Amino acid sequence: DEYGTESNKTTCFISHDDILIISGSYDKNIQVWDTRNFLCRHKLTGHTNKVNDCCILTDKRTIVSVSEDKTIRIWDLRRLKERHILNGHDKCVNSCSVSLDEKSIVSSSSDSTLRKWNISDGNCTDILEDNTDEVYSCCITLK
Question: Rounded to the nearest 5°, which phi and psi values hold at 3?
């Protein structure tokens, strides 16, 4: 159907206030769901392969998604458009995590790297290349 409710979901993330659910799927799209009525409010398109992970920032205006298409995308939910497309990984991007101050993203990839990105300008600020195999997951924690 129009919003991809029939497509297999690969990931989901609930907003901090429990009102929105963000889901990614094999159909390359991200859906934004309202938990009060479980209707799909928006569908974001742009990835060219399946979406592996996604999250929404506490402002409920910014979504981050990663895909088999080797990109990380930062979305503006108000305008329903991509704010940045982050390129740099050589293989699919498997997961993402947002820092507590919501200024940085860390991404993990099948290219055996972790990359740190600036959310506001989309620039890569650090690369961890010491892994010997694919990196499937990442998480940012407190010190």
Answer: -100, 5
CA distance 109 to 122: 17
Which of 60, 24, 58 is closest to 44 using CA atoms?
24
Residue 44 vs residues 3, 63, 65, 87, 130: alpha-carbon distances, Å:
9, 10, 10, 19, 34
pLDDT digits (tens, 9 = 90+) for 38-76: 999 999 999 999 999 999 999 999 999 999 999 999 999
DSSP 3-state of 16: coil
* Total residue length of the chain: 143
In angstroms, the CA 101 to CA 128 distance is 21
37-63 core/surface letters (b: 16 or more CB in 10 A; e: else): eeebebebebbeebbbbbbbbeeeebb
Six-digit token string for 76: 């503006």
pTM over 0.85, yes/no: yes
- Report the C-alpha gap between 58 and 43 in whole angstroms: 19
Sign of CA dihedral 140, 115, 48, 133: negative
Q: At 140, which amino acid appears?
A: I
